[in-house]
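4.2 Preliminary Data

To establish feasibility before requesting continued support, the project team ran the inverse folding procedure on a target of 324 residues. The structure was first converted into the token representation described in Section 3, and no sequence information of any kind was made available to the design step. The complete token record follows.
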């Protein structure tokens, strides 16, 4: 497949410096791109790659355009990374005819489920009783949407996603556990993308809610009755315990954990591997990671941490004695 630079700029905008008739055969990183490839540079730290690139065209900001090798075509734009994202969509659209609507013959759709005629349900998917799949949504292979769960419009659910499994609810009874039936469902808004093998549990009484524009990576666990606000993004292996409420436009780094029944304000950024143990009421960047060290040093530091409470009390006593 080939797209001319003139076609790209006409579709996506930007200021073209170079031959509009140049045919692009692929997208590639700057360090490996060839004369018929298009790449991008958004981070000034990698400008050395721009100076050395053999790419036929580079998407770049105005501040960095003069660093490109002579003869390299440029598409100058305010946000090269966003432009590149839109270019990948344009490329995929023209690379194939797009996703074909319909239900794969191997999928199982309950007669009482509703699948929009423009949605695509892939191989070995299961859509259970009362579930609803919205317009333009794509369910890749082996996706399961449980009973009464709702998937909005233009969502993408990657392979192995499970929507609406039972939440983890049990009552203790003399050393045994009695199951609490999970009577809620899952409601997913529009334009949500959910990565492979991510699980979103149904609510115990009320629904688990994923608002519009949320992006979830692979292998994420969302517990029952969790509420995730619009346009929040989570990286792989995040775990969110039951009844946590996460605001809009948050980011959660890979492997982070949010404990149950906490409230996270809108605009919060949580670093990878952080364990959130209390509610966060103000937007900002939060980190709680014990630094990597050799094992012997780590054990000494961990032992010291256990003594901090005692040391604090001793300091308070000394402060009182000094004041006296």
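Position-by-position output of the design step:
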């Amino acid at each position: 497949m080939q797209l001319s630079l003139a076609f790209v700029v006409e579709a996506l905008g930007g200021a073209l410096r170079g031959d509009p008739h140049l045919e692009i055969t692929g997208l590639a990183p700057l360090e490996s791109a060839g004369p018929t490839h298009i790449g991008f540079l958004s981070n000034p730290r990698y400008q050395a790659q721009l100076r050395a690139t053999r790419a036929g065209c580079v998407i770049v900001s105005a501040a960095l355009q003069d660093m490109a090798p002579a003869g390299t075509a440029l598409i100058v734009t305010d946000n090269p990374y966003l432009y590149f994202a839109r270019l990948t969509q344009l490329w995929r659209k023209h690379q194939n005819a797009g996703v074909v609507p319909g239900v794969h013959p191997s999928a199982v759709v309950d007669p009482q489920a509703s699948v929009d005629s423009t949605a695509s349900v892939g191989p070995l998917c299961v859509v259970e009783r009362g579930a609803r799949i919205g317009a333009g949504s794509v369910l890749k292979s082996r996706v399961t949407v449980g009973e009464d769960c709702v998937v909005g419009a233009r969502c993408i659910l990657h392979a192995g996603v499970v929507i609406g499994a039972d939440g983890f609810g049990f009552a203790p009874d003399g050393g045994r556990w009695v199951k609490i039936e999970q009577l809620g469902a899952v409601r997913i808004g529009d334009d949500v993308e959910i990565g492979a093998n991510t699980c979103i549990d149904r609510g115990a009484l009320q629904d688990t809610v994923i608002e519009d524009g949320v992006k979830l990576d692979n292998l994420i666990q969302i517990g029952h009755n969790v509420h995730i606000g619009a346009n929040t993004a989570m990286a792989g292996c995040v775990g969110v315990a039951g009844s946590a409420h996460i605001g809009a436009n948050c980011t959660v780094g890979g492997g982070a954990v949010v404990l149950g029944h906490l409230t996270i304000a809108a605009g919060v950024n949580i670093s990878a591997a952080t364990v959130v143990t209390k509610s966060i009421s103000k937007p900002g960047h939060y980190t709680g990671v014990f630094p990597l060290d050799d094992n012997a040093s780590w054990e000494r530091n961990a032992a010291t941490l256990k003594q901090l409470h005692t040391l604090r009390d001793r300091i308070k006593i000394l402060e009182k004695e000094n004041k006296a």
